[in-house]
Amino acid sequence: MNLVKVIVLILMSSFVNINNGYRILGIFPSRPRSHHIMFDAICKELANRGHHVDVMTMYPNKNPPKNYNVIANFEKYDESVVNKFNISFAMKIDGIVLRRISEYHGNRICEYLGLPEIQKIVKNPPTNPAYDLVIVESFGANCFIGIGHVLKVPVIMASSTLDLPWLDNALGQPANTAFFPSFFTINIHPMSFFTRLFNTLNYHINLIGYQQLTKAIQNSQMKKYLDDNIPPLEELEKNVVLALVNSFHSLNGIRPITPSIIEVGGLHVNSNFVPLPKVSHKNTKVFITHGGLMGTQEALTYGIPLIGIPLFGDQPANIIYYSKLNMSLHLDINNLTEDTISHALNEILNNPKYKNAAVFQSARFLDRPMSPIDTAIYWTEYAIRNGQNSLRSPVVDMSWWQVNLLDVYLFIIILFLIILFTIIFLFNMAWRIVLSTRKHDKND
Ligand SMILES: *[C@@H]1O[C@H](CO)[C@@H](O)[C@H](O)[C@H]1NC(C)=O
Ligand SMILES: *[C@@H]1O[C@H](CO)[C@@H](O)[C@H](O)[C@H]1NC(C)=O
Ligand SMILES: *[C@@H]1O[C@H](CO)[C@@H](O)[C@H](O)[C@H]1NC(C)=O
């Protein structure tokens, strides 16, 4: 009798395990290698927790866990950039970051929608079991959100940088440009009037620029390869449940964030994924870096001060953040001499301020209710459990002038002016009456 009970329990628990595992499709076709450190960590951990993860990627995991399958490998369609990035090239693309994200890492990549590997999933989605969720990178190729629409499952996004303006726009995240640096700028609080002006213009110019460069093309790619009746991207983007974003308030600053932006900064560091093993070595005194978010977050985790020599993209902004926290020095790539380098090294090695700040900031960065990888897994499963509109902000369904209360402020100003002019008019009238009665009195 007892034995039967035990067997039934074991059988039930194994069923429970099967039912707890979701089937998740991760779509990460983009070329920058460092972004994949984050996506790989998420996909690997989802598989380790019993989910069935199918991945479309350019950099397949070399040591995949059970339940992790590469169903599309874009390696053969695109040239890897690993070890081919030289300084002159890196500095050249600094001026054209938006165009590069939109076109090279966006529209160009969206042509993959026509590849047989993707068409197979779109035309004949697996049913045994069916997908429960799609994860798409937030960078330049939002067209892949369309796959979630075709599969009729919720979509979440993952951003290996801070949330970009078009991700904010999709989720109803306020821009906060009064004190929060816009897209890859080094404008940091406190900002002067003109810095706030440029910061705000930069945000909106980049948002509109991205839409101009991508929307029409990616909409037609989705129509061509996915579904002729697919709604436009601006509608599909609003249905994205949430985004896992590689930021954290202790590093990037305090700002109001909408519940669908999930900060998981440093997620890759504590998830058995250590791309830079030497950073964590007990004798490491300083990390000299180009200022990529992945490597610097690793140094932050281990309390290692930085010397930053940023090149392009978010790197200058990243180094500014660390410098503001007193754990980094900034070297200009155009001014690298024996003198500047040795001065920076001597300063970091001999002034305890930097190491102390790095250790202090490390503790703050790690002080969270849940580790970033646990946070990412929790919210991924949340999106599946609660579905498409569970975190939808009312902001995405309103016009920008309503959200910013322009109509309300305009009404108040006009009302105030009407009252003001009425009072002036009445005083004027009263004054004239007084004057004319005085005249009258005199004449009498
Ligand atoms: C740098 O890379 C670019 C693009 O890959 C290439 O055209 C150029 O020749 C390279 N320059 C040097 C100095 O290696
Ligand atoms: C950094 O150092 C400066 C002066 O050494 C100090 O005024 C400032 O408060 C420090 N910033 C932080 C975030 O600790
Ligand atoms: C280069 O660095 C030195 C030392 O920090 C500094 O005095 C000099 O003004 C810098 N030159 C330029 C062109 O930035």
Give the helix level as a range of percent. Answer: 40-55%
Number of strands: 10
The arrangement of helices and strands along the chain is HEHEEHHHEHEHHHEHEEHEHEHHHHH
Rg calc = 28 Å
Head-to-tail CA distance between termini: 123 Å
CATH topology assignment of the largest domain: Rossmann fold
Total domains: 3
Class computed from helices, strands and strand pairing: alpha/beta
**CATH homology group of the largest domain:** Glycogen Phosphorylase B
Strand order of the largest sheet: 3-2-1-4-5-6-7
Q: Globular, elongated, flat, extended or rod-shaped: what is the shape?
A: globular
CATH architecture of the largest domain: 3-Layer(aba) Sandwich
Largest beta-sheet details: 7 strands, parallel
What is the CATH class designation of the largest domain?
A: Alpha Beta
What's the total helix number?
A: 17
GO molecular function: UDP-glycosyltransferase activity
Keywords: Glycosyltransferase, Membrane, Signal, Transferase, Transmembrane, Transmembrane helix
Protein name: UDP-glucuronosyltransferase
Signal peptide: 1-21
